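Usage example:
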Amino acid sequence: MDRSSPVHTPARGAAASASRTPSHARAPVRRVSPARIRLLLAGLPVALVVLAALAGPAVDPYDPITVRLVDRLRPPLGTLSGGARAWLGTDQVGKDLLAQVFEGVRISLAVGTATVGAAGLIGLVVGVVSGFGGRVVDAVLMRLADLQLAFPSILLAIVIAAVLGPSVANVILTLSVTRWATFARVARAAALATKEREFVAAAQAAGAGWGRIVVRHIVPFTLPPLLVVATVELGLVILAEASLSFLGLGTTPAHPSLGLIIANGRNYLSTGWWISTLPGVVLSLIVLSVGHLGDRVRDYLDPRSRGA
Amino acid sequence: MIAYLGRRLLYTSFALWGALTIIFVAVRIVPGDPALLMVGPTGTQQDVAALRHRLGLDRPAWEQYARYLLATARLDFGESLRLEEPALDAVLQRFPATAQLALSATVLAVAVSFPLGILAAVRQRSLLDHVVSVVSLLGQSVPNFWLGIMLILVFARDLRWFPSAGIGGLSHLVLPSATLAVLLIGVLTRLVRSGLLDVIHEDYIRSAYAKGLPPRPVLVRHALRNALIPIVTIVGLQLGQLLAGAVIVETVFAWPGVGRLLVDAISNRDYPVVQVAVLLITSVFVLVNLVVDLSYAYLDPRIRYV
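Running the assembly step on the lines above writes:
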């Protein structure tokens, strides 16, 4: 982020100098700001989740979709027929739950980031066009965003997903169609604020065309606020994907996301409580740590909202 | 006031029109022929043609759209394809159950989150404050369908305190409304706390203490009332989440409301019912937000609508 936006936003620049001045006066050693430390600490659990998603298959040797009926409904820490240990148990057809959870985390994270990326891109384009397109374009696009926000987004997602049918690509499409509006609002606000700055007039005076001005001077300024929205939205999108999958409108059994594993365990509550329980704990922890990181990113990039 | 109300009503109808259009487009971009899907694999060529004609699918798109809007204006949504009754009746019949669930969840959420939020604000940075903030963050992070399953597992299967499914007396209401309330509790507690913290250091609070009022009336009548506007706004906005959450909670607890009907109708491709259910949920959401906006003048007499 630091590299892609070389010029700081006013809020952030002010905060940086405010926190730096006293330490300069006292000692020449440059201290790391507490906000940055909190940001890094909040990033740690999320990094662990990503690591688990990537390294999972190496730790757990089982394939998440291999059926072994002899070993079905083994409880967590139970021993399999081969003598190996099933750390999180097995499901009703003997599929290893830990391997499924690793796979589920991978799918939930992939769907979440892809959706936030797509929704963010739509929002960026709509927001910048809205900020530069003149009053009519602006009014039309922003009323459209209002309309989108007036509609409970998970409801819209349910309807669209039902029409499109369950698949990983459709979930990403559905959720980005229902999530772009917040990004568009934020990108528009940032674009409008930047449009009036002197360096835009300077670039114009130097003969730069609008395309160049937008790409080189406006877009970099919309990225920090969009990043804040993106981290906050990531948790919500992961939850929305899980809900869709739970209803059978999300990913398919070939791509068992956490929501789908939980839905499967519902039918075995009396014989295999762990099938629904444990993936849900993992899902909650992921959403919790991503949400926490979102708060910290916001504090870091927009110090005025700190503590709110 | 009148002009404001007029503008808001205009916006409300715009939102509903948008919802109608989204449903119209969504149902018609289905890959393949909806009539074919509705008739199913057992239908004959004639059945499909008859259904296409009955649904008006053999007409140009703009004409279908115009007919659709006119029929909606007459509240004519057609017959449910499966339940053999008008789609509107089917949905309205289920509405009281959903309203009951949403209302009891809201009451429960307010009853829990206001005391928690007030305590956290009064004892800012205490251990209690930290515990409350972790709890409210958890409330927003736990997926409600999973929470519902966990409550069934513990309170219905193991302890046998409450039934796990269906509608009936008060005992049937406990688990579903608790599940639905948790998200709202997370959001509200945070909001009550930060809202109170914003006003608690104002001069008039100090004056109220200075003239000898005990803490409770100061907090409730002076501080909380002024913190209420953002809270009421969010409660209104959260109602949309609550209604959408009801779709999932009703599925988990086999609660016979609009949400479960919607999920059933979706899996049966009963489009008239899908359409009415979505329209009803959206209407309630939009109307509640209108009421919320109008309630500001009561909560803060300084606000005038122009």
